[in-house]
Write a structure and sequence with these properties.
Chain lengths: 390, 390, 390
């Protein structure tokens, strides 16, 4: 069908268009790129052959794309000594957040999840000794049947050493059928590790960003996934752990948010855990729309809010799209939770905007010195919580 | 006036159009329907004659509709032993949440509230022994004068054994006058029981949903009112109490959220109490608009966010409109607060999507087993957080 | 340039158009007006000559307007005995919140901040004895370079006795360049006092409202800045301190929210501190848009939510625009946080709507009696919430 072919072509264009151009070209700032997955297509098809197959949701007549995702155990958190798990396109590249997955409306994606987390680790994370042992993949925004729900009751999870194929359908907007479309900024996460809502799995690192684009959507130069979570963390880190950029040679990643002047940057902001947060970035603002920009003109376009601070609760996601340094110039722009005691405890990082040549300008001073975190093993300083903030 | 007549006609059409078709036909899933109120119109007029009459807000020249509402004491909560109150179209059908009230813009509704809650119960709920004893009806979204505010300072509440008529005007949008309209998803609640903000009244169950529709709005097949509140509750219940659906013979109601494949379902989500929550449903999403759908086309329609998770604070309300099982099929779809410790403590229910014939498909597994709630009498296990703000 | 001249003219029209007409004509309800600043232009230019000059952000080719802002120490809070600081257009008129600053898109504003807060007071507010001593001006929404960021790391703060000029550019929407515009409801605040996020500065009172208008935006008759913050406060006050209106002779201000029937009133709602809140006003509602009203018609205009309750987290700001008493009439309309224990503890004030003659109607009863706050010195009863959910 012509339309379907057009979509697939567009997907290929996406992966080319987003190739970055900083110190580490080709890395879009999040621990991996789905371009890699496309290269691994053949292998993935084989893996799917042995994995229990998910059902296709209505409208997904053909699988357009396949990829593998590995759930593995990572080294413990260097500050809190907590268990860390991660999803990766390969076991070696697993990270928290996991790889950014990009889709385009119309696409049907089969993801084979391989659970390589040791059984003993999963047992240790259980809230209840009768809870089953496994890892899953639950996603927001796109369409999937109960077989790809990633929950215990639907039996759609993966025991240690096993694998399972989940099918996601980025259902397109269709004004004839009333389908509203699935384009948006979403996230995927475990829903099984440790309890029926995957709380210990998410807390350990089993989450990542999903962006579904619509044909014609503006394309970013860089995407950063920023999960605002418990213990005043961004991507599970805080204080000096949250910003590890080397000023001389910044390598974009979950703890190094950097762009050159004029680059189009999108932040995929995710709320995780038990707490409310507000996402704020200095010097930059975005439109409170699906795409983060205002498209169109007229009275209604005129009335769309432009914001620079947004409440994000657990499970909420949105895209904040900015042009790096536009009007305001290069510099070390603070990016933090505006809940004051959260930022004071280190829930803050920096959006480093380099000049056109990729150098940090001298006059902008030094990056903010985040307080060094005094963190007892096994927990860390938690929210003094609305307690005594007199 | 022609326009007014057109509106009244439309209201009658509403009550016909929303008649459901599941096991218990005619019940739209919320403990009662305003259709019943229409039948009781004559009685209501008599009652109003003896009740102190509210003032009509500007624009409400004629009362289009009358109904009675009874505030009664219900059996104590079976788990926590807390006092439970409810509003009902009759004393026998009172429930928490109270009956869904539907209006259409242009309509003027007179509601006579009869306070049948025993004086001793109201005294027991007081936070302050000098606070007056009574029950009231305060609403959101529509227009009312101070006489229908339902507050202590305006003396617009009802002592035990008394009655009072409140007048609500669903002011229409009028681009000439600049009136913005009152169509939306709202709630009504007590504002007097126990304290000047009705906190103990709301906590005991004195709240319900109000939907104001605009002519031309899409009509749902079913409406469920879901109040997200303290102690990790949905409609004041959690864990197994929150989902009491009988799989063989589901009866739609506040603790049984069920629909057939393809039915248009709207969730009226209400935040109550002292806490923040996030509303999430698996497999389904909605537009972040007044109606929950995207109407129109073009660049702006294209930029409206589609979401499947939304922050709701106390007093916030919104409509999440979905097509049951669309693309994703029948199944037991989890519906929960995404604040992880809330869902882990049982703030979770199930959106049961039956097949076209009204049967639960076999392959979808069993409904999620909510943890059985270990609940000490007189309180129950509270949030380890948000501790003792009773 | 013609366009620029048109903008400047429009600014002058703004300041004329918003002159109020209540008991204290000319006061728009917030401790000062930028009209005063315009009168002081010549002085401000001189002051700027001796203050370190900020950089101009891109697009700001000429400074259109200059003003002075003084940071001073005010008398301690009468209830809690906490330190109070304020910004003022003069040292004598400093207040919390500080003066409302209004801009129009296209305008470039230079503000010279004079730090008159005693060094000993700033030392007392430090969270860390190594933190530098100073006061700053950080703003939301508009454009500024690192030199006007108001942060420690950019060295853009003011030591005691010093002054510094900050430059803000209300970048206009430009559909050619893709600039999205800066029109909106924002706030400005200290970012340095006591710690790297200015938490003790904000908590003491160093914040104020900023409104950026777009040409053609609807103009209000009155603007009230309402900061919802910690300890269940509105503008740092609660209970009887939050509503000090004299019914016979109301003087609009941060603790007296009053208007005549039919006046266009905008509430600039700001979230500050460590906690979530929900803003609710009785009898009135607004559109959830940039301007608080719906402009335009058609299916999309039709789908914009009208709300009367909105979640506001720290750093969030929005404009709630209402017509005083429209349809509902004069009266004492409650305005409160709908988080129940917040309102019960006194996070509530009154929107006093007078009749056309500026008198309070008799039938509306008395203003709500806020509970008298039993407040121990140095703290007050804090939220017992958000305890131990680690």
């Amino acid at each position: 069908m012509n339309t379907r072919r057009g979509l697939v072509l567009a997907v290929l264009l996406v992966t080319l268009a987003v190739a970055g151009g900083l110190a580490s070209a080709g890395d879009r700032g999040v621990g991996g790129s789905t371009t890699a997955a496309a290269d691994k297509g053949v292998t993935a098809v084989n893996a799917a052959a042995v994995a229990p197959a998910g059902e296709r949701p209505g409208g997904c007549s053909v699988i357009d794309r396949r990829m593998d995702l590995y759930a593995v155990e990572l080294p413990k958190d260097p500050v809190t000594n907590q268990i860390r798990l991660g999803y990766g396109l390969t076991p070696q590249t697993a990270s928290y957040p996991g790889p950014l997955i990009e889709m385009i409306e119309g696409q049907c994606l089969a993801i084979t999840l391989h659970n390589q987390v040791p059984q003993a680790t999963l047992e240790q994370l259980r809230l209840d000794p009768n809870h089953p042992i496994g890892v899953s993949l639950h996603t927001h925004g796109v369409k999937y049947t109960q077989m790809s729900d990633g929950t215990v009751h639907s039996n759609s999870f993966v025991p240690p050493g096993g694998s399972r194929t989940y099918i996601w359908y980025a259902q397109p907007r269709n004004t004839n059928t009333g389908a509203q479309g699935t384009a948006g900024y979403w996230w995927y996460h475990d829903h099984v590790v440790g309890g029926p809502h995957g709380t210990p799995g998410i807390r350990s690192g089993l989450f990542g960003g999903l962006v579904v684009r619509r044909q014609g959507d503006p394309r970013p130069d860089r995407t950063y996934v920023l999960a605002f979570g418990d213990r005043q963390t961004i991507n599970l880190r805080r204080s000096s752990e949250a910003d590890t950029c080397d000023e001389q040679n910044p390598v974009p990643g979950p703890t190094c948010v950097v762009a050159k002047l004029g680059e189009k940057v999108e932040f995929l902001v995710i709320g995780i855990g038990d707490d409310m947060h507000t996402f704020h970035v200095h010097g930059h603002s975005w439109a409170d729309t699906r795409t983060g920009v205002i498209e169109g003109t007229g009275a209604l376009a005129n009335s769309i809010p432009i914001i620079d601070n947004k409440t994000v609760g657990p499970g909420d996601t949105f895209g904040a799209r900015v042009i790096a340094g536009e009007s305001v110039g290069p510099g070390h722009w603070m990016l933090h939770c505006h809940m004051q005691f959260h930022s004071d405890l280190g829930m803050s990082t920096t959006f480093h905007v380099l000049d056109e040549n990729g150098a940090m300008t001298a006059h902008a001073g030094h990056a903010p010195a985040n307080p060094v975190q005094a963190a007892p093993a096994g927990g860390g300083q938690d929210a003094p919580a609305h307690g005594n903030h007199g």
